[in-house]
Amino acid sequence: MNDERLTVARTADETDGPPPEPDRPEAPESAPVRKRRRGPGPFTLLVVPALVTFTGVAAFLALGGLPDPWPDDSEAKPSTGADVDPSYVPWLRKAASACTVLEPSVLAAQIDQLSGWSDDSDALSGQKGIAAFTDSEWRTWGKDDDGNGHASPRDPADAIMALGRRDCSLAEKVTELRTEGRVNGDLVELTLAAYATGPDAVTEAGRVPAEAKTYLDEVQALLPRYEALDREDSGGAGGPAGALLTAPVTPLTVTSPYGSREHPLTGVTKLHTGVDFAAPQGAQVVAARRGRVVFAALTSAYGNRIVIDHGTIQGKRVETTYSHLSSLDVAVGRTVEAGTPIGRVGSTGLSTGPHLHFEVILDGYYTDPGPWLTT
What we know:
The protein is α+β, with helices and mostly antiparallel strands. The chain has eight helices and twelve strands. The protein has helices at residues 42-62, 89-96, 104-115, 135-141, 156-179, 187-197, 199-205, 213-222, and strands spanning 254-256, 259-262, 269-272, 275-278, 284-286, 291-299, 303-313, 316-328, 335-336, 341-345, 355-362, 365-367.
């Protein structure tokens, strides 16, 4: 009820008509005594074939010629994973699978930005390996992930897995902050910002801080070339979702719609980030769509709160939230279907009485739940 808004060819010059024919060689002057040549002269043997070859090659190139094995990077589209050693790909996918926020392309783009896939050390910063870990950072995140007997930031497999652990830890922190309504924005962007400036800077700014913008822009510019690394979505909780949500309580009696309002307890005018539905204490609350529970706990403002990740709709991630519950009947990690009981209506947190505060979060930003709900 007092939530704040969560505000990531070459061109061919074709020549019309056939190529010009080479000039026919004129017969050289003959010696006075010999009127007849016994064979072609030097001009015919050397110059004419060269002219024919030259014009033929010129015509071939004008029509496109052979593909350039080294295209101009300034004009060519970004390659798709072309800069990644094939032996790194399984490690990128394994590292990204440790949390739902990351994709292999994000890790690859980070490494490209950090080191350009070079394991040279930075003498000034002390960074080592393709993921640019300092010694102190490595002591926290480094492990012998490939089982070769030693953990080293110069070992690409170890470095990739360590970067994945670090990013997933940051993703967990910013996810919690966003779920509690303390920060605003896309989880991947918030994670990258936390990597660049630390979680405290993100928390203080309430969004991606200005000092992280350059790093974020550079990583995002590199993402397209690594998109082919991303695993296929197998459906389910992370798969494509439908266009509508079912009612989380019945009947849907709106007592406070989405939009700007004066908070009934604090008196502060701000965005009401969801819809309040009237319901008696203990009434059943159900999942609005199939998905995976990503948060289920007591918070200071929302009271007992559940957040369900429903996957993507037209490339945008959709989550629903259920707040002020009197009980939590599901745990984090559980997959639920539309209509699955998840809790009971209550008045926990900052609330004036029993009701359900219901929200729809689209790609990290609150949106009006009304159009999403079937009536």
